[in-house]
Write a structure and sequence with these properties.
Layout lengths: L2 H14 L3 H13 L5 H25 L1
Amino acid sequence: MNEHTLTYLIGDLFRRTGDTENALKWLSEVLISRNATPRLKDKARDVKDAIKEARQKNNEKNT
C-alpha cells in the first residue's frame, strides 16, 4: 500500500464518519498528485462527486 492509497482511504473514512470537509481535502490530495494511479484518481473522483451530490440533495431538502 502506498501513500496515495492511504490518502484515499483517510478521505473515505472521513466521508463515512460524516466529516465531508476533511474528506474532500484528503481526496483532493489524491486528485492533484502526479504519482497517483489513474484508477485511484477515478475512485477519489467518484467519492468526491458522491459527497457533492449528497450535499446538493441535502440542501434541496432543507429549502
